[in-house]
Amino acid sequence: MLRLPYFTYLQPTSIDEALKMKQDAGPEGMYVAGGTDLYPNMKRRHQEPKTVISLAAIESLRRVSVEPGASAVIGSGMTLTEIETHAGFRSNYPVVAHAAELVATPLLRNMGTIGGNLCLDTRCNYYNQSYEWRKSIDFCMKKDGEICWVAPSSPRCWAISSTDLAPVMVALDAQFTLIGTNGERRVPAGHFYNDDGIEYLTKRPEEILADVRLPAANGWDATYWKLRRRGSFDFPVLGVAVWVAWDGDTVRDARIVLGGVASFPKLIAAASEAIVGTDLNDDAIAAAAQAAFKPAKPMDNTDFGLAWRKEMTRNYVRGALEELRNRHREA
Questions:
Q1: Among 112, 207, 230, 327, whose CB has the most other CB atoms within 10 angstroms?
Q2: What's the rounded Cα separation, in Å, for the pair 274 and 281?
Q3: How far is CA 59 from CA 63, 180, 211, in A?
Q4: CATH top-level class for 221-331?
Q5: Could you state, in order of their start, the residue ranges of all structural domains in the chain?
Q6: What's the pTM?
């Protein structure tokens, strides 16, 4: 049985107190929210903090504001269950509620938070194993080793981003509020992630993701499609988030974002441009699906075969766009 290592557990009640604790702990301290990612990683010795600083008792991280026609604010400490069942999100931001309800299982959603999902560690078949398994292959570049076994000649780690909510937030152009010892800053969701399996966040180690700000739900629609082997529990091997802003029956602007195919949520500009100025007719949708298919380069580090996963990119982008078109026509 995998067991947690010994560590000191701290539970601050304010952001300032948490920052002070992290400063005192230094590199050996880590924040934890719901713990559904960090604690299993600690059992496998992926992360080995000596001090764990819980954010669960900080009430300011649990505030939420959702009003029709206005921007929304989601505290990073809101659980995924609270988001998926919140009447305001289901009414004004159904894509956010839908993505939240697709994460893991009900029990894990009761614990997992939106902040934790957005900061989820990147995943790989060679990394997400027990310590003994990883030791038998001389570890990997992401933890304790020097070689990325997915691409042995590569100078970088190719572990993939497997968060469901990150592609949605990039598609919506959400803003993230980060609070650290140097003050507060706000970054677009698309700038929060790096295309690197190890340094996958631009967040500084001491910073806390405090909240997520969503644009007002006026004149746009969005959807999220997730590919996985089982209907629950599994991480996505492909996530497709599509955001479309309408001007009458014409697409004024669009963003198509892929998850599960790279170390970061990948905005496919060519696919987005293929539908701008159209009424989402079949030709425009086919062009966007093909444009998303070309740069999708799934690696051999997760479930299913590479060629099939790549082909599913085209199918899922097409399906997501058809959903938005049909919903607009029925409105």
A1: 112
A2: 11
A3: 7, 17, 12
A4: alpha beta
A5: 221-331
A6: 0.97
